[in-house]
């Protein structure tokens, strides 16, 4: 779901879902209509036949051509014959169950999302530069349990900002707030001076590209997976961003190259390969703000170096937020924000933090001691 939201493909996926659902509903309703008409007809025919047999059998008994026992036995055989036909009534129960299930599905589909556009909101008639201001932001998933507390900082367009901290420090939560998967409880996040809550969701997500730790690839070809970032892109542009993300080198080795089917029903890509496809997808989208949520945590060191080299060029003049467990990935960031318990406890370049921040130095030394071990 977040993959769809971050690429602003709500309408695209809704249309796909609607087309398939409509076809399925129409065929199912047609079958149910036929069964609903057939069942009463069979009951009437069965009842009429029994009455006719009883009347004719009675006349034959009176004429001495048939005994009462033979008539009763014949009626019993007829009743057994109609048992399977009468079972068609169970279709009505199935139909009622289907309608009840449909009501529950419709109830879910009709539920209004918590995060939605305000009435009358309009998008600015220009592309955002990428200035980000976070002012006194507090957020909690559950009441009285803040995940982020009074967070404030500013980022100029084109800056590369890294967020580090122990698990649960609030790094990923901040990125979710930036993508507006949730709205802040207190304070505000501003893009080029505009409060996120006053901008259309589609406009915000068109200007932010996100690479998650475990990206999701829809069933389809590699070309379609990358083109999710821009549905109008031609193969030339797709190959260009794949090369920049260092994905081209493994794609050309696939059975059908860019037309190879991937996903649950196709070729299974490794986590590192999926991440490179996801990076290419974001680069094709070409947003002014890029978010990497632990995007290199599952990529081997050699591949990570290649991606880092490409990103150093491709993030030029783009506001970039990076979360990574490998602190070596963050050393070239313009600033590093050190988070603890949902608060920013220090910030600055790598060298300065290494000298003055106990929290950052502890994270750094623990990681490199682990690597040496």
What does this structure look like?
The protein is an alpha/beta fold. Helices cover 49% and strands 17% of the residues. The strands form 3 sheets. The protein has a 6-stranded mixed sheet with strand order 6-9-10-3-11-12, sandwiched between helices. Strands 2-1-4-5 form a 4-stranded antiparallel sheet, with helices on one face. α2 (10-62) runs antiparallel to α3 (68-86), α8 (235-244) packs across α10 and α12 crosses α13 (358-372). The radius of gyration is 32 Å and the shape is elongated.
Give me the secondary-structure topology.
Layout: H1 2-6, H2 10-62, H3 68-86, H4 90-109, E1 132-142, E2 145-155, E3 160-164, H5 171-178, E4 186-191, E5 194-195, H6 201-206, E6 208-211, E7 220-221, H7 222-227, H8 235-244, H9 248-251, E8 261-262, H10 271-285, E9 289-293, H11 301-314, E10 319-323, E11 335-340, E12 343-348, H12 350-356, H13 358-372
Helix pairs in contact: 2-3, 8-10, 12-13
State the separation between the terminal residues, measured CA to CA: 39 Å
Number of strands: 12
What can be said about the biggest beta sheet? 6 strands, mixed
Task: Show unreliable segments.
Answer: none
Radius of gyration: 32 Å
Compute the average pLDDT. 81
Beta-strand percentage range: 15-25%
């Amino acid at each position: 779901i977040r993959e769809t939201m971050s690429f602003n493909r709500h309408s695209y996926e809704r249309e796909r879902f609607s087309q398939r659902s409509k076809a399925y509903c129409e065929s199912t309703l047609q079958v149910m209509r036929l069964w609903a008409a057939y069942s009463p007809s069979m009951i009437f025919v069965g009842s009429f036949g029994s009455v006719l047999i009883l009347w004719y059998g009675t006349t034959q008994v009176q004429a001495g051509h048939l005994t009462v026992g033979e008539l009763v036995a014949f009626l019993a055989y007829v009743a057994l014959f109609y048992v399977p036909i009468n079972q068609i009534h169970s279709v009505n129960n199935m139909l009622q169950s289907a309608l009840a299930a449909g009501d529950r599905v419709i109830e879910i589909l009709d539920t209004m999302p918590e995060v939605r556009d305000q009435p009358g909101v309009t998008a600015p008639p220009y592309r955002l530069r990428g200035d980000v201001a976070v002012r006194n932001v507090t957020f909690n998933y559950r009441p009285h349990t803040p995940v982020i507390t009074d967070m404030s900082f500013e980022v100029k367009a084109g800056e590369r900002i890294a967020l580090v901290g122990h698990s649960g420090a609030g790094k990923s939560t901040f990125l979710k707030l930036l993508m507006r998967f949730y709205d802040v409880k207190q304070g505000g996040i501003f893009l080029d001076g505009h409060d996120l809550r006053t901008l259309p969701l589609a406009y915000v997500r068109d200007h932010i590209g996100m690479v998650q730790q475990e990206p999701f690839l829809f069933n389809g070809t590699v070309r379609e997976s990358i083109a999710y970032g821009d549905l109008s892109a031609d193969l030339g542009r797709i190959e260009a961003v794949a090369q920049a993300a260092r994905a081209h080198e493994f794609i050309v080795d696939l059975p059908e190259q860019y037309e190879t089917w991937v996903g649950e029903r196709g070729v299974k890509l490794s986590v590192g390969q999926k991440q490179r496809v996801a990076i290419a997808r974001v680069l094709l989208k070409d947003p002014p703000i890029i978010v990497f949520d632990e995007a290199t945590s599952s990529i081997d060191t050699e591949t990570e170096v290649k991606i880092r080299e490409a990103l150093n060029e491709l993030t030029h003049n783009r506001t970039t937020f990076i979360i990574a467990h490998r602190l070596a990935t963050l050393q070239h960031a313009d600033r590093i924000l050190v988070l603890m318990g949902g608060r920013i406890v220090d910030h600055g370049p790598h060298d300065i933090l290494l000298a003055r921040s106990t929290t950052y130095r502890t994270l750094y030394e623990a990681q490199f001691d682990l690597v040496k071990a």
